Amino acid sequence: MEFSSKLIEKAVNEIAQLPGIGKRSALRLVLHLLKQPKEQTTFLSQALTQMRENIQYCTNCHNISDSLVCEICSNTNRDHQVVCVVEDIRDVMAIENTGQYRGIYHVLGGKISPIDGVGPSQLKITTLLEKVKQNQVSEIIFALSATMEGDTTNFYIYKQIAHSNVQISTIARGIAVGDELEYADEVTLGRSILQRVPFEKSFKNN
Ligand SMILES: [Zn+2]
Fold first, then answer.
1. How much distance in Å is there from the Cα of 205 to the middle of ligand 1?
2. Contact assessment for residue 162 and residue 168, using Cβ atoms and an 8 Å cutoff
3. Are 106 and 85 in contact (CB under 8 A)?
4. Distance 60 CA to ligand 1 centre (A)
5. What are the structural domains, with CATH classification, of the chain?
6. How many CB atoms lie within 10 A of CB 151?
7. What would the pLDDT profile of 113-167 be if each residue is shown by its tens digit?
8. Which residue has the higher pLDDT, 60 or 206?
9. Span from the CA of 2 to the centroid of ligand 1 (angstroms)
10. Could you say which residue ranges form the zinc fingers (C4-type) (predicted)?
């Protein structure tokens, strides 16, 4: 792509680094911004800079947060003994949108995936095991996507806590295999949390 302006070229190249955006789309966005009032670009760049500089990770559940302890973890009306294990903030958002869950979360930050070079030590698993060890948890609910990586991760954690008194369950698979949680509709997802099944049953049936 030939640019007649270095400024445009630089902006396009930056935006085109984002996933799913090619240079053509990036150019369209840049030209759109140029047609808008200048402030819009200022607000956009400020929002991005502030987000990047001020974002924190909850020290309890590792979810992306505006403060050291996220709003969910600091809510005393929630059941802190029930912990739903998810991959990232999108899963938390999807489950929160169902309005059916009153426990807290544990955000792993990914799934075990040897092909991508992601092992257990790169995920936030130790702090979860620690909570179980300290009897802070009565139930663990696995809510990772039904992929091989999700299953591997569930099983890895399960093996570490199977001997404990913690009830271990998994969301009912109303969601088709391979579907990501964020795409499941709210009603289906809400129901699958309410109708969760003991984890052991879920893999013995497979
Ligand atoms: Zn939290």
1. 33
2. yes
3. yes
4. 5
5. 6-54 (1.10.8.420), 78-204 (3.40.1360.10)
6. 20
7. 999 999 999 999 999 999 999 989 999 999 998 888 999 999 999 999 989 989 9
8. 60
9. 47
10. 58-73
Average pLDDT (54-63) is 95
DSSP-assigned states of every residue in 82-147: EEEEESSHHHHHHHHHHT---EEEEE-SS--BGGGTB-GGGSTTHHHHHHHHTT--SEEEE---SS
59 C-alpha to ligand 1 centroid (Å)? 7
Instruction: Give the CA radius of gyration of the chain.
Output: 21
61 Cα–ligand 1 center, Å:
4
Ligand 1: centre distance to CA 64 (Å) = 8
> What separation in Å is there between the alpha carbon of 75 and the centre of ligand 1?
9
Spacing, Cα 58 to ligand 1 middle (Å): 5
Alpha-carbon distance of 184 to 93, in angstroms, equals 12
Alpha-carbon gap, residue 173 to 147, rounded angstroms: 12
Tally of residues, the chain: 206
Q: What is the pTM of this model?
A: 0.82
- SS3 track for 131-146: HHHCCCCCEEEECCCC
Residues 6+ apart with CB under 8 A from 49: none
